[in-house]
Amino acid sequence: MRVRRHRPDDGRAPAAPAPGDASASPSRPVLAGRLGRNRPGLAGGLARLFAGKVDETTFEALEDLLVAADVGLASTGRILAALRDAVRTGAVAPTPEALVAGLRAEIVAGFAGEDRSLQRAAAPPSVWLLVGVNGVGKTTTVGKLAARESADGRRVVVAAGDTFRAAAGDQLASWAERCGATLVRGADGADPSSVVFDAVEHAAARGADLVLADSAGRLHTKTNLMDELRKVRRVADRPPGRVSEVLLVIDATTGQNGLAQAREFTNTVGVTGIVLTKLDGTAKGGIVLAIHDELGLPIKLVGIGEGPDDLVAFDPDDFAAALTGV
Ligand code: GDP
Description:
This protein has helices at residues 42-49, 56-68, 73-89, 96-109, 138-151, 166-179, 192-206, 225-236, 257-269, 287-295, 316-324, and strands at 2-5, 126-131, 156-159, 182-185, 210-213, 242-251, 273-277, 299-303, 311-313. By secondary structure, the chain is α/β, with parallel strands linked by helices. The chain has 2 domains: 2-26 and 115-324, Rossmann fold; 38-109, Up-down Bundle (Four Helix Bundle (Hemerythrin (Met), subunit A)).
């Protein structure tokens, strides 16, 4: 086990402005124009669709558009039923503009009343464990979170728990170096639980606020990934550590496949929220709705690029506006 400190002092981040919350609502829309840049999406389809009058054909065409945008059958059904109802009762006028506005409102309503804030333990260190299959963006998200949490004045320890992929540790080393977080990593192929355990011990000994634990999406051994993750979680949850978030990272560009992965992870490791990455790489942002509706888990963060600032809190208004183009 090597403990690398990228600061000459004890790894404390510099004094910073009052800590903000990584999950606070953005003050300005960030998704508009970034959701699947330059690709025709739902917004383009809606613009064409609603050139005419609203009748049954409109609803059928809208259904096709939503399914094509990865919204999924169940969520599409829910949204269409609500829209038809709204038009029938007069809550939404049978005009193209009103219907698109109704669609947007319906999308936003689906996310109402849920807590999307990132949870912290009553006493530090909190542990946020990131899980998901290979290549979805776990390591990058850990790096981005380390950057923003450090910038908010928190002392962050990063646990390089993906010991299967040597490059993951190197990626994290450079993220940690840039933001002044402490990195704890093991030898390649080391037991991920022991890396996370050491990171928690290190964090507690140094009075750090947060441990960000990366994990493997695939293993060296034949050990079942889910068993391994359960063990990592158990170990990370032993005092002085407290797992306050298990964030499932899903790549938005994989569309409905992401759902199948999500089911397995949520059933076995007790996921507390979703991070949807690469939303900049798909016009089919509807996967957000499918995942949210099926899993009943809050979408806490959205990845819209590879840079340190390309991780934003999920904001339903911003998302609905970007998806529908209104
Ligand atoms: P891991 O195997 O789950 O740890 O995945 P990585 O963090 O290594 O990410 C895999 C690839 O996806 C890398 O090339 C990342 O730069 C890229 N990536 C991660 N998040 C995003 C995102 O939000 N947008 C884009 N465009 N690329 C991303």
